[in-house]
Specification:
Structural class: mainly alpha
Keywords: Membrane, Transmembrane, Transmembrane helix
Number of strands: 0
Order of helices and strands: HHHHHHHHH
Strand content: under 5%
Shape: globular
Radius of gyration: 18 Å
């Protein structure tokens, strides 16, 4: 439970910093006056990152001096900070790997893997579905391509973290190579996955997330006029 609590705090901090970078003012007291909706807010269990991002987006849009550029700043900051957070976690795990204590980080890394995968698939998938609807963030086609490329790189990084803490006795470089093999569809069924259904299932989640991002998002973004 400690690892899960740390993960939620990390996600909260990422979104809070992204919100503050908009310079739109202070958010309301977190959850103080929030009206919970059972089916809508169950997402906090599936993907705290997605839920918190939606929460702060609503906060931004509720401000009197709200402009679309504020939402644009939040989205870009959230994307960039998440990339650096994933990279930092991989670096820390790589340093701790020889000490055989990375199992301590397993709950945090597993939940982050599932949470970020869901958030990326939903965010970019929703953007594709709503392609013809009015955009509220003023993100250009080129902004969206940059966001997609950043998320594409992040998928490899946080997936490497996942394999590092779930596959027994592997080096950090091996975890990265596994992630690259799965993400590029060149080695989805790795021999290291044998007798480990959880890791095999995670590999297909990585594949589906990558395909959702590349095939749907990038293809449509490139075809946009603006």
């Amino acid at each position: 439970m400690f690892g899960l609590a740390v993960y939620f705090l990390l996600e909260f901090y990422v979104r809070k910093v992204s919100f503050e970078l908009t310079q739109i003012g202070k958010p309301n007291d977190f959850l103080n006056k929030y009206k919970w909706e059972c089916w809508k807010d169950i997402a906090i269990l599936i993907s705290p990152g997605y839920w918190l991002a939606r929460y702060y987006k609503d906060e931004i849009k509720s401000k009197q001096d709200y402009l679309p550029c504020h939402l644009k700043i939040f989205i870009k900051a959230n994307n960039k900070i998440n990339l650096w957070l994933s990279l930092s976690l991989l670096f820390i795990l790589s340093l701790l790997s020889p000490l055989n204590i990375i199992a301590f980080f397993q709950p945090l890394i597993i939940w982050r893997f599932l949470s970020r995968s869901f958030e990326i698939m939903y965010a970019f998938g929703n953007d594709v579905v709503n392609d013809n609807k009015q955009q509220k963030s003023n993100l250009t086609k080129y902004d969206r391509i940059k966001l997609a490329l950043s998320s594409y790189i992040e998928i490899f990084i946080y997936s490497s973290c996942f394999y590092l803490v779930t596959v027994k006795d592997i080096e950090p470089t091996t975890a990265v190579l596994i992630s690259l093999g799965v993400g590029t569809l060149t080695n989805v069924k790795n021999e290291l996955f044998e007798c480990n259904n959880i890791v095999t299932f995670a590999a297909y989640i990585q594949v589906f997330t990558t395909l959702s991002l590349v095939v749907l998002s990038l293809a449509i973004y490139v075809s946009r006029k603006k």
